[in-house]
Design goal:
4-stranded antiparallel sheet; single chain; alpha+beta; hydrolase; cell shape; Peniciliin-bd_prot_C_sf; Peptidoglycan synthesis regulatory factor (PBP3), Domain 2; 5-stranded antiparallel sheet; Beta-lactamase; Peptidase_S11_C; 36% helix
Length: 388
C-alpha cells in the first residue's frame, strides 16, 4: 500500500509538472516572439486579426502621448482650443528631461507646433507644456486622460503622467495593454492632422533651427504605406510601437509592446502587417445606403411602408477561404415607424459576425424623409393593412 501511495504521488506530481510547463510555455510565447504583447487590428471596424497576450499588463512609455494628442485634438474639434493658441513654457516643463525640443522657461509656441513636436519627436517638454496649458497642471490633465480612457473602454490602462518617462523613487508607473493602445490609436486616426505629423520623416521646429526627426522613421522608410503613429521606450518598458499602414482602402493598426530592441520591435510590426495583407482577403459586407431587412409599416404616414438602410460601408478582412463564415443578424426592435420621421433616423442595427466572433455593428436608418399622411392617406392604409 505504501508503494502504491508513492506511485500515486509521483503520477500526480508528474501531471502537475506537465501542466506547469504548458502554462509556462504559453506565457513565454509572446516573449519568445521578441515582444511581451502584440495585436493587429483592421482600423475601420476594429476587427482583431491577430493577438498575442493582448490584454497582458505592459508599460506604455511614450505611447501615453497618444492620449495627450487625442484629448487636445478633441478639444480643438469642439472649438475650445486652436492650433494657433500660444502656449507658454513653465519652469517645470523646461526641466522635464528625456527626449525634448529644449523649451526654455517663458518661451511661447503655437499649440500646433508643440503637438508636431510631440507626435514626431516625442518631446517630453512639449507634452508637459501642452498639458499645463489645457488643464492648468499635469495632474489635472492626467485626470482627463484617465476619464477619456474609461470612456473608450481602455480597461487595462492607468495613466500617471503625460510623458511616459520612468517613475522616480516613490512615483507610480503607467500601465496599459496592447489592445488598449491599438484602440487608442484607432481613435486617434479620426483626426487626420495626426498623420500629417506622424507620416513625415523630418520637419523643423523653432523657425527651422531645430530638426524634428520622426522616432518611427525606420518603419516609415522601409515599409510602404506606413504613416504613423507612435513609438515608446524606457528601460523598464522595453521598445514599444503603435503603427499604422494604409494600402488601397485597407488600413491596419499593429501594436508591439516590450521588445528587447528596436530590431525586434520593427520585425514584429512587419510580420503583423505582412500577415494582414497576405493571409486575409477583403470582403464588402454592407454598402452605405443599401436596404437591409424587410420594409416596415409606417404609422399614420403618407406612404404605407419604408425601408431601412445601412448607415455605413462595412469591409471585413477575413482569413482566405472563410467567406461562408460571415453572417448578419438584423435587429429592428419596433414593428412600425411613426410618421413624421426625418431621413437618417436610427431604428435598428445589423450585427456582423465571423463565425461566433462579433466584428462590428452598423446602424439601420431611414432612407428618406417620411411624411405624415392626411386623414385620407391614413384611412386608405388602415384598410390596406387590415385586408393584407
Amino acid at each position: 500500500m505504501q508503494m502504491q501511495g508513492k506511485s500515486f504521488r509521483r503520477a500526480v506530481g508528474g501531471m502537475l509538472l506537465v501542466v506547469f510547463c504548458l502554462m509556462r510555455s504559453g506565457a513565454m510565447a509572446a516573449e519568445d516572439s521578441g515582444y511581451k504583447a502584440a495585436i493587429l487590428l483592421e482600423a475601420q471596424t476594429g476587427q482583431v486579426l491577430f493577438e498575442d497576450n493582448a490584454h497582458g499588463k505592459v508599460i506604455p512609455a511614450s505611447l501615453v502621448k497618444m492620449m495627450v494628442m487625442l484629448i487636445v485634438l478633441e478639444q480643438i474639434d469642439a472649438g475650445r482650443l486652436s492650433l494657433t493658441d500660444m502656449v507658454t513654457t513653465s519652469t517645470w516643463a523646461s526641466k522635464i528631461g528625456g527626449s525634448q525640443v529644449f523649451l526654455s522657461e517663458g518661451e511661447q509656441f503655437p499649440l500646433g507646433e508643440l503637438l508636431k513636436a510631440i507626435a514626431m519627436h516625442s518631446a517630453n517638454d512639449a507634452a508637459t507644456a501642452v498639458a499645463e496649458h489645457v488643464a492648468g497642471s499635469t495632474d489635472a490633465f492626467v485626470e482627463m486622460m484617465n476619464a477619456r480612457a474609461k470612456e473608450l473602454g481602455l480597461n487595462d490602462t492607468t495613466f500617471v503622467n503625460v510623458h511616459g518617462l520612468p517613475p522616480a523613487k516613490g512615483q507610480k508607473e503607467n500601465y496599459t495593454s496592447a489592445y488598449d493602445m491599438a484602440t487608442l490609436g484607432r481613435e486617434l486616426l479620426k483626426h487626420p492632422k495626426v498623420l500629417e505629423w506622424t507620416g513625415a520623416v523630418e520637419d523643423t521646429f523653432r523657425d527651422g533651427k531645430f530638426v524634428l526627426t520622426n522616432t518611427n522613421r525606420d518603419l516609415i522608410l522601409k515599409y510602404p504605406g506606413v504613416d504613423g503613429l507612435k513609438t515608446g521606450f524606457h528601460s523598464g518598458a522595453g521598445f514599444n510601437v503603435c503603427a499604422t499602414v494604409q494600402r488601397d482602402d485597407v488600413r491596419l493598426i499593429a501594436v508591439v509592446m516590450g521588445s528587447n530592441d528596436k530590431a525586434d520591435r520593427y520585425k514584429g510590426v512587419v510580420a503583423l502587417f505582412n500577415k494582414g495583407f497576405t493571409q486575409f482577403e477583403k470582403v464588402q459586407v454592407l454598402r452605405k445606403g443599401f436596404t437591409v431587412g424587410d420594409p416596415l409599416i409606417i404609422s399614420k404616414g403618407k406612404d404605407r411602408t419604408a425601408t431601412l438602410v445601412a448607415s455605413n460601408n462595412v469591409t471585413l478582412l477575413i482569413p482566405k477561404g472563410k467567406k461562408d463564415a460571415i453572417r448578419q443578424e438584423v435587429n429592428i426592435p419596433i414593428p412600425r415607424i411613426p410618421a413624421p420621421v426625418a431621413k437618417g433616423v436610427r431604428f435598428g442595427e445589423v450585427v456582423i459576425y465571423l463565425d461566433d466572433q462579433e466584428i462590428t455593428r452598423v446602424d439601420l436608418v431611414t432612407d428618406r424623409d417620411i411624411e405624415r399622411g392626411n386623414i385620407f392617406d391614413q384611412m386608405k392604409w388602415w384598410v390596406v393593412n387590415k385586408i393584407s
